[in-house]
Amino acid sequence: MAAVTIYTKPYCPYCEGARELLTKKGVQFQEIDISGKPDLRAEMIRRANGGSTVPQIFVGERHLGGCDDIYALDARGGLDPILAG
């Protein structure tokens, strides 16, 4: 299984939704809290090709987008194959 990284902030309902979906799928992930950390926020924006909202979700170096994006990908049946690597 590929490494999953999720950039988040506290009290973010979209971050919570993304964590819930990944957890439901049994995925372990590295969570990076960017609040008050301009260097990590800049890293997230660079990796997400300008995406500046949280969450931003990556599988390996592949950018999946945010919460709505991974739910839509899952609804189309595309998330599990990506997570499986």
From TrEMBL:
<dbReference type="InterPro" id="IPR011900">
    <property type="entry name" value="GRX_bact"/>
</dbReference>
<keyword id="KW-1015">Disulfide bond</keyword>
<feature type="domain" description="Glutaredoxin">
    <location>
        <begin position="4"/>
        <end position="63"/>
    </location>
</feature>
<dbReference type="InterPro" id="IPR036249">
    <property type="entry name" value="Thioredoxin-like_sf"/>
</dbReference>
<protein>
    <recommendedName>
        <fullName>Glutaredoxin</fullName>
    </recommendedName>
</protein>
<comment type="similarity">
    <text>Belongs to the glutaredoxin family.</text>
</comment>
<dbReference type="InterPro" id="IPR014025">
    <property type="entry name" value="Glutaredoxin_subgr"/>
</dbReference>
<dbReference type="InterPro" id="IPR002109">
    <property type="entry name" value="Glutaredoxin"/>
</dbReference>
<keyword id="KW-0813">Transport</keyword>
<keyword id="KW-0676">Redox-active center</keyword>
<keyword id="KW-0249">Electron transport</keyword>
<keyword id="KW-0963">Cytoplasm</keyword>
<dbReference type="InterPro" id="IPR011767">
    <property type="entry name" value="GLR_AS"/>
</dbReference>
<comment type="function">
    <text>Has a glutathione-disulfide oxidoreductase activity in the presence of NADPH and glutathione reductase. Reduces low molecular weight disulfides and proteins.</text>
</comment>
<dbReference type="Pfam" id="PF00462">
    <property type="entry name" value="Glutaredoxin"/>
</dbReference>
